[in-house]
Specification:
30% strand, 24 strands, alpha+beta, Endonuclease - Pi-scei, Chain A, domain 1
């Protein structure tokens, strides 16, 4: 998989033995030890214990070189190692990621080699899975809307389907982006996507407009920080199918997650979805599972690119430095809500229907009270037939 063709970094190039080339980005890594190497060209390099140099077109690891070792310099000039010292200290180092033309580049007068980031194992969604999505589902949208064509459409609304719209909010300036996805709830197929910069009010209006277009989709908006500005606009517009959740929600409970604001105050509900330090790891884990099992269908190249740089930084999953994960987290929240609150509610509805279907109508004979006659029994006519003639027996009484 050649990530160098994906130009996430479009502003800079790096010098290589074959000229300036594109590269994917820069990754910061923490190491427990490092080498300091003095070269014959006067340069001093700090590198990890498995950093790759080149000599005679062969990779040479830093832990295999010693004083007097030769490595390739710029323009074919050989550089000799004058001294090398190992330090058992923690240090932050920086890798040049995925350089076009073989991951070979020039630095400090020598030729270095970095491994392809896609083989590093740091990505939350594995390389093989991302390659499957790239080959199977990614395609250009059938329509792009907006002044900057930030809203991408792959499928127009189908009146017979239900949709969920999940949104992440930003201020609308600087390097922050707002992002949302529209997903077919049943097939889990991405049908629309937005990533751009709007004010919170304009973004709220856009969300209401798109959600209404897609059959009044369930609108799930992250309410952290500036999300309240967007949610207030949605509430002011009185959009009826806004997701509400409990303020004290520590576990997902069908009785504490609702898709409308009915009795919201009585049930202590707030508009939107809150991402916390407790549920974020669960959201990421659920996201990875859905992609690994190929249960979700994505078509966006923008989302695919974000997934490529969505990595494990220690125990936390986040975007590589210099990139963002707005699209990743918004679809992660959508999958989480769909798999928890909506699924549990559907299970409850199905259970109730099953219970009702088992209730049958029982028909029993009804015993009515005996009719009370106003005539005393001794005054009633008693008859019997003899030779087809009726004779009265009242004389016996």
């Amino acid at each position: 998989m050649n990530h160098s063709k994906i130009k996430l970094n479009t502003r800079f190039q790096i010098l290589t033995p074959t000229g300036y080339q594109d590269f994917f980005g820069i990754r910061k890594v923490k190491k427990d030890c490092y080498y300091t190497i003095l070269l014959s060209n006067g340069k001093i390099i700090k590198c990890s214990d498995n950093h790759s140099f080149i000599y005679n077109n062969v990779e040479v690891r830093s832990h295999d070189i010693s004083i007097g070792s030769k490595i390739s310099g710029v323009d074919g000039i050989e550089v000799v190692v004058v001294s090398i010292e190992k330090f058992e200290n923690t240090i932050d180092l920086y890798d040049i990621v995925n350089v076009s033309g073989g991951n070979i580049f020039n630095v400090d007068g020598i030729v270095s080699h970095n491994c392809d980031f896609s083989t590093s194992g740091n990505q939350v969604v594995s390389v093989d899975v991302l390659e499957f999505y790239k080959q199977t589902y990614l395609k250009d949208p059938i329509e792009k809307r907006g002044n900057n064509q930030d809203l991408w459409i792959w499928d127009y609304p189908n009146y017979s389907k239900n949709y969920i719209l999940t949104a992440d909010c930003a201020r609308g300036d600087g390097g922050d982006f707002s992002a949302f996805h529209v997903i077919d709830i049943e097939t889990m197929e991405q049908v629309a996507e937005y990533k751009g910069q709007l004010t919170t009010k304009d973004y709220g209006n856009l969300l209401v407009s798109v959600a209404t277009e897609y059959n009044n989709a369930l609108l799930v908006v992250e309410n952290n920080n500036v999300g309240w500005g967007t949610l207030q606009q949605i509430i002011d517009r009185d959009y009826q199918n806004t997701f509400y959740s409990a303020t004290d929600l520590t576990i997902v409970d069908v009785e504490k997650s609702y898709s409308n604001k009915l009795h919201a105050q009585d049930k202590k509900l707030v508009a939107g979805f809150t991402t916390t330090s407790k549920n974020r790891p669960l959201i990421v884990s659920n996201l990875e599972l859905f992609f690994r099992q190929k249960q979700v269908i994505i078509k966006s190249k923008r989302l695919y690119e974000e997934l490529n740089v969505f990595i494990w930084n220690g125990p936390k999953a986040e975007a590589m430095r210099g990139y963002n994960d707005d699209l990743v987290m918004s679809i992660g929240i959508g999958l989480w809500v769909r798999e928890t609150a909506l699924r549990l509610r559907n299970d409850q509805i199905a259970y109730n229907k099953a219970m009702i279907s088992k209730i049958s109508k029982v028909t029993s004979p009804v015993i009515l009270p005996r009719e009370i006659s106003s005539i005393p029994d001794y005054q009633k006519t008693l008859e019997f037939s003899v030779n087809d003639k009726k004779e009265s027996l009242t004389w016996l009484l």
